[in-house]
Amino acid sequence: MGKTVIASIAVVAMSFIGTGSHATAAPPQRLNCTAGQTIVFNGTTWGCADFPTGAGLTGLERVQADFPANSGDLSTIATQEVFAECPPGKKVVGGGYLHFFGGDTGTIRTNVPTIDGDGWIVDGTNFLGNPWRLSAVAMCADAE
């Protein structure tokens, strides 16, 4: 069975205000977005897009952490938790998750910034035991 992707990114920062949407499509091959870009989905195609300029933010950076870490593989571990940590000197201004799976969806229980603003945490459970991968995405900017 082919893999399916659900992506949800909710970014709250000046010109990014809004909530993410769920999209279903074939997963992208490992996208190589730069630090000045984020993953986007237009309903048909996945790609990389530049962050908007003049948003009143400096040092905007997208950080992604995956479970299982750095493998690109799916896991049969039912409950997964992942933390995308902002680099030193930056704070989270938004975030979300990517959920890759090979069957029915799991339940995302947590999709929030940390209280100290150092990153974004996501956790969920796949109750059917299908292989899946959970990723947390933190949108980070320079902290004053």
Protein described:
This protein has 144 residues and is mainly β. Helix content is 0%, strand content 49%. The strands form three sheets. Strands 2-1-7-10-5 form a five-stranded antiparallel beta sheet, with no helix packed on it. Strands 6-9-8 form a three-stranded antiparallel beta sheet, with no helix packed on it. The radius of gyration is 15 Å and the shape is globular.
Brief summary of the model shown:
This protein is mostly beta strands and 144 residues long.
Number of strands: 10
Radius of gyration over alpha carbons? 15 Å
What structural category do the secondary elements indicate? mainly beta
- Note the beta-strand portion: over 45%
Helix content: under 10%
The first-to-last residue Cα distance is 48 Å
Q: Which key phrases capture this entry?
A:
single chain, five-stranded antiparallel beta sheet, 10 strands, mainly beta, 144 residues, three-stranded antiparallel beta sheet
Topology:
Layout: E1 4-11, E2 24-25, E3 37-41, E4 46-50, E5 61-67, E6 79-85, E7 90-101, E8 107-113, E9 119-125, E10 132-142
